[in-house]
Amino acid sequence: MMMLLENLARFLRDEEDGAVTVDWVVLTAAVAGLGIAVLDVVRAGTGTLALKVSSYLANTTLVTGF
């Protein structure tokens, strides 16, 4: 039984075939998280700008004659 566990531990320690997949999963998760964070910041900024433009246009009078 002990030999089986030692062989399993050696296999898991020495095997690197799945390491690239794990790296890609972590990298993809980081890029997705960064994208979500950027979208949240941009959304907040565009909302503020839209309110300022709306307020400016609401207080502007239009000249209808030439």
UniProtKB/TrEMBL annotation:
Protein name in UniProt: Uncharacterized protein
Keyword Transmembrane: yes
Keyword annotations: Membrane, Transmembrane, Transmembrane helix
Transmembrane segments: 20-42
Species annotation: Phaeovulum vinaykumarii
